[in-house]
Fold each of these.
Amino acid sequence: MSKANEEKTYHEHEWMVRPCMIYKAEYDDCTSIRARFNQYFIFGETLDCNQWKTDYLNCYEWEKHKSEKAYDELIMSEKQRRKERLRAHYQNDVWEKREKPPENWNAPLPEWMQKEFENSYLHIRNQEIKQGKENSQLDSRCTIL
């Protein structure tokens, strides 16, 4: 196996590494006064934000010095974060998971729904884009009340 292929397979999880400044921003946000107040209100205590700081430092070491140890720790942290985020999804035993989409998932909408959709902003704008119009006939100021 060539060295290029070996290095590519060794860093197969590199896509999980976020830009380093995101880790720093997450740490700064987690330790802000507003976040601390919210954490105390929701959980009754403040959360430990040190993992974000550790991830930032590991990311910096990986980006600047290609430290394998920092890379491994960062990937392990990202996997743990992902596992925690998806834990409820995998523990869900209420809904039956699909193997494939329903047979008619892309069937046309009922006629009454298509008729209502004809005058909607999204439909008109979609038609304009398909025709290549850059300036919309619709007023660009949209207010949602």
Note: The longest helix spans residues 68-91.
Amino acid sequence: MQIIEDNDASGGRYHATIDGSTAEMTFSRTSPSLIIIDHTLVPDALRGKGVGQALALHAVEAARAGGWKIIPLCPFFKAQLERHPDWQDILKS
């Protein structure tokens, strides 16, 4: 699955389009070292296909590669963090 990242000065989104349906995870940038993940949208046509999980993993990998932390406001992303104790290193403490 190809995940595309769109950025601007204040934030952006990670998104993937499969069979004409697009799922996305949006974020706001509060500083060069901190983002807030605020929303995840997975259309019904893509539910159960692991798209949301892939978006969440992409966000974690991007944070690690970029050296920033994440504040998880999105309920879906928060739930993913609880399922993955190995992702705790990207959390803003």
Note: The chain has a mean pLDDT of 95.
Amino acid sequence: MQILLDATSIQQALATQAELARLITIHVEVLSEYQGYELGQLVQFVVMASGETSADLDRALGYPITADFNEEPEFVSSWETIDEYQYWFELVFVRGDDGE
């Protein structure tokens, strides 16, 4: 599992696979408008290898991805969106919304 927290680790991952590079590049370009922040303050990319499980992801993130953070009586996913690509799934988690 790769956890991409900064420009260096992201740059190294861009050489991994063309579709992954395209997805990451799009996000980095969008986030570039937030001046005064290091990339790691805005985003964290986690790239799982084939065979890794949701339990592995839970351990890497430090919380269960299926947790009901809203404490609703019925399950509400912890991710904002999930998209499927040819080789990847993209889950977006919003960890904070301080308005900055």
Note: The chain has one domain: 2-91.
Amino acid sequence: MSKRQNTAEEEQGAIDLTPMLDVVFIMLIFFIVTATFIKEPGEEVVKPEATTAELKAASILVAINESNEIWIAKEQVDDRMVKVTLERLYAENPKGWLVIQPDKKASIEKVALIADAARKIGIEKVSVATEKS
């Protein structure tokens, strides 16, 4: 009789983990869906310094290296294809903004070319990435 009482007591004291696992699984799905992933332009640049630098997240990153090559989404882009590439990326995320990451030795003409293409597309939020001095 004592064996039957022990098993009955163990059954009453057991905790069902199924609802907890359901909640954890739903939370995992929520965090995966709402996560923002870091996008990289594809080229490492040495940014110029500025005293008013701020940290912001961006949806479109464009890098200009010291050789004045333009890199968008890990691909080198020709000057004539900048507008088309920006249009495609902006169509994927119309609420996002553009950050231009020029190298210290990059030409200001390339920065102006990208900013002008962004303005023609309708991207209103354009900024230039710098290092805080």
Note: Residues 2-34 form one domain.
